[in-house]
Amino acid sequence: MCTGHLIEKWLAAIFVFMSTEQTGPTAPTLDQARRQIARYGLAADPRAVLVATRLMAAGALLDRASEVHFARFGLSTGRYRLLADLEDCGGEKSPSRLARSLGVSRATVTGLVNGLEREGLVARRASAEDGRGAVVVLTARGDRRLRDMAADHFARLQALVGALSAEERDVFLDLLGRITGGVGALTAD
């Protein structure tokens, strides 16, 4: 099946899904989107508005579920992402590079590192490059935490998207890429 046909199939399925209450009792509906657009006298596409608001609702739901998920390992989503980023780049990175790769502020990285350092999962040390700056280093204990949680963590991630075929996952990744490419529409001045 060609990708274009799959995308059309997926979009049709998403629109059917989004016009029902399948994402929870408080999820926005197509009728609500239509009413709000009419109330303000706008020419917006109600389905586009519904897709965007449902994505926001799904994002909030996934954020809450992620916190519950990572709490079982004694972590938060942010702490896990920092540990995984360190592991992925060979075990050490400067705080500014961590902030860039995680998409957060330096202050957020400082808070995450402080907590992880108290638990012995990361350490700070002088940079080998210039000796002045500091780098954050994944400790053996941090590496062990990631290894200990890996089987359960990845099994749950796979189960999260288990209802999708491999081909549907590829299409979904493409659609997500397109949508995240439009995030600037929300943040632009």
From TrEMBL:
It holds the Pfam family MarR_2. Residues 47-181 form the HTH marR-type domain. One of its GO terms (molecular function) is DNA-binding transcription factor activity. Keywords: DNA-binding, Plasmid, Transcription, Transcription regulation. PROSITE patterns: HTH_MARR_1, HTH_MARR_2. SUPFAM superfamilies: Winged helix' DNA-binding domain. The keyword Transcription applies. GO terms for biological process: response to stress. This is MarR family transcriptional regulator. It comes from Streptomyces clavuligerus.
